[in-house]
Amino acid sequence: MAGKITNTKGFTLVEIVVTLAIGAILMGAAMVAYKQISTVHVIQTDLDKMITFLQDKRLKAFTQKTPIIITVATNQLTNDLDTDLVDMNNDFTGSAGTFTINSRGLFNVGGFIRLTTPITEYSCINIANSSVREGKWNVATSSCDAK
Fold it and tell me: Where does the chain cross the membrane (predicted)?
Protein backbone atom coordinates (compact mmCIF):
# COMPACT_ATOMS: atom_id res chain seq x y z
CA MET A 1 0.00 0.00 0.00
CA ALA A 2 2.87 2.30 -0.44
CA GLY A 3 1.45 4.02 -3.56
CA LYS A 4 -2.17 4.58 -2.41
CA ILE A 5 -3.01 8.06 -1.10
CA THR A 6 -6.37 8.62 0.60
CA ASN A 7 -7.72 12.16 0.93
CA THR A 8 -10.52 12.44 3.49
CA LYS A 9 -10.38 16.19 4.06
CA GLY A 10 -12.88 18.71 2.62
CA PHE A 11 -16.34 18.53 1.07
CA THR A 12 -17.49 17.40 -2.34
CA LEU A 13 -19.20 19.77 -4.73
CA VAL A 14 -22.48 17.85 -4.34
CA GLU A 15 -22.43 18.28 -0.54
CA ILE A 16 -21.87 22.02 -0.85
CA VAL A 17 -24.67 22.44 -3.43
CA VAL A 18 -27.13 20.44 -1.29
CA THR A 19 -26.25 22.51 1.78
CA LEU A 20 -26.74 25.77 -0.14
CA ALA A 21 -30.08 24.55 -1.54
CA ILE A 22 -31.37 23.66 1.94
CA GLY A 23 -30.19 27.06 3.24
CA ALA A 24 -31.98 28.86 0.38
CA ILE A 25 -35.24 27.00 1.07
CA LEU A 26 -35.06 27.88 4.78
CA MET A 27 -34.32 31.54 3.99
CA GLY A 28 -37.28 31.67 1.60
CA ALA A 29 -39.62 30.32 4.26
CA ALA A 30 -38.24 32.78 6.82
CA MET A 31 -38.78 35.72 4.44
CA VAL A 32 -42.43 34.77 3.86
CA ALA A 33 -43.04 34.52 7.62
CA TYR A 34 -41.27 37.85 8.22
CA LYS A 35 -43.33 39.61 5.56
CA GLN A 36 -46.57 38.33 7.10
CA ILE A 37 -45.53 39.37 10.61
CA SER A 38 -44.45 42.77 9.31
CA THR A 39 -47.79 43.32 7.54
CA VAL A 40 -49.76 42.42 10.66
CA HIS A 41 -47.63 44.81 12.72
CA VAL A 42 -48.21 47.72 10.32
CA ILE A 43 -51.99 47.11 10.34
CA GLN A 44 -52.04 46.89 14.14
CA THR A 45 -50.09 50.15 14.35
CA ASP A 46 -52.64 51.85 12.06
CA LEU A 47 -55.54 50.59 14.19
CA ASP A 48 -53.85 51.74 17.40
CA LYS A 49 -53.19 55.22 15.94
CA MET A 50 -56.83 55.58 14.83
CA ILE A 51 -58.23 54.45 18.19
CA THR A 52 -55.95 56.89 20.02
CA PHE A 53 -56.97 59.70 17.65
CA LEU A 54 -60.69 59.02 18.07
CA GLN A 55 -60.45 58.78 21.85
CA ASP A 56 -58.43 62.01 21.98
CA LYS A 57 -61.06 63.83 19.91
CA ARG A 58 -63.85 62.50 22.15
CA LEU A 59 -62.02 63.94 25.15
CA LYS A 60 -61.49 67.29 23.41
CA ALA A 61 -65.15 67.50 22.38
CA PHE A 62 -66.18 66.85 25.97
CA THR A 63 -63.69 69.19 27.67
CA GLN A 64 -64.12 72.03 25.17
CA LYS A 65 -67.90 71.48 24.92
CA THR A 66 -67.81 71.63 21.13
CA PRO A 67 -68.83 69.09 18.48
CA ILE A 68 -66.11 67.65 16.26
CA ILE A 69 -66.49 66.11 12.82
CA ILE A 70 -64.07 63.27 11.99
CA THR A 71 -63.53 62.65 8.28
CA VAL A 72 -62.45 59.22 7.04
CA ALA A 73 -60.34 59.36 3.88
CA THR A 74 -58.69 56.37 2.23
CA ASN A 75 -55.54 56.46 4.34
CA GLN A 76 -56.11 59.41 6.65
CA LEU A 77 -58.35 60.61 9.49
CA THR A 78 -58.87 64.35 9.92
CA ASN A 79 -61.08 66.57 12.05
CA ASP A 80 -62.59 70.03 11.80
CA LEU A 81 -61.36 71.28 15.21
CA ASP A 82 -57.62 71.48 14.63
CA THR A 83 -54.93 70.36 12.20
CA ASP A 84 -54.43 66.97 13.86
CA LEU A 85 -54.59 64.04 11.48
CA VAL A 86 -53.63 60.40 11.32
CA ASP A 87 -51.72 59.11 8.31
CA MET A 88 -52.11 55.38 7.85
CA ASN A 89 -49.97 52.95 5.89
CA ASN A 90 -52.98 50.95 4.68
CA ASP A 91 -56.27 51.88 3.02
CA PHE A 92 -59.29 52.04 5.31
CA THR A 93 -62.94 52.77 4.66
CA GLY A 94 -65.69 53.89 7.00
CA SER A 95 -69.35 53.01 7.21
CA ALA A 96 -69.83 56.76 6.88
CA GLY A 97 -67.57 59.38 5.32
CA THR A 98 -67.76 61.37 8.53
CA PHE A 99 -68.44 60.72 12.20
CA THR A 100 -69.68 63.49 14.47
CA ILE A 101 -68.73 63.67 18.14
CA ASN A 102 -71.15 65.86 20.07
CA SER A 103 -70.26 68.30 22.86
CA ARG A 104 -70.74 65.54 25.45
CA GLY A 105 -68.01 63.40 23.81
CA LEU A 106 -70.43 60.88 22.31
CA PHE A 107 -70.63 59.73 18.70
CA ASN A 108 -73.96 60.76 17.17
CA VAL A 109 -73.94 57.77 14.84
CA GLY A 110 -72.18 54.45 15.40
CA GLY A 111 -70.42 52.54 12.69
CA PHE A 112 -67.01 51.23 11.79
CA ILE A 113 -63.73 51.95 10.10
CA ARG A 114 -62.24 48.88 8.46
CA LEU A 115 -59.26 47.81 6.45
CA THR A 116 -60.29 47.88 2.79
CA THR A 117 -58.94 44.37 2.26
CA PRO A 118 -59.00 42.51 5.59
CA ILE A 119 -55.78 40.57 6.03
CA THR A 120 -55.59 40.06 9.76
CA GLU A 121 -58.07 38.71 12.29
CA TYR A 122 -58.59 42.13 13.89
CA SER A 123 -58.90 44.60 11.04
CA CYS A 124 -61.58 47.12 12.00
CA ILE A 125 -62.65 49.64 14.61
CA ASN A 126 -66.15 49.47 16.06
CA ILE A 127 -67.54 52.91 16.85
CA ALA A 128 -70.47 52.93 19.25
CA ASN A 129 -72.19 55.86 20.95
CA SER A 130 -69.67 55.98 23.79
CA SER A 131 -66.87 53.59 22.84
CA VAL A 132 -64.18 53.01 20.24
CA ARG A 133 -62.88 49.44 20.14
CA GLU A 134 -60.85 47.23 17.88
CA GLY A 135 -62.79 44.38 16.34
CA LYS A 136 -63.08 41.50 13.90
CA TRP A 137 -64.62 42.10 10.50
CA ASN A 138 -67.70 39.90 10.06
CA VAL A 139 -68.11 39.17 6.35
CA ALA A 140 -71.55 37.57 6.77
CA THR A 141 -73.11 40.66 8.38
CA SER A 142 -70.74 43.29 6.93
CA SER A 143 -70.11 44.65 10.40
CA CYS A 144 -67.29 45.05 12.87
CA ASP A 145 -67.71 42.87 15.95
CA ALA A 146 -65.87 44.53 18.86
CA LYS A 147 -63.37 42.49 20.86
Answer: 12-34
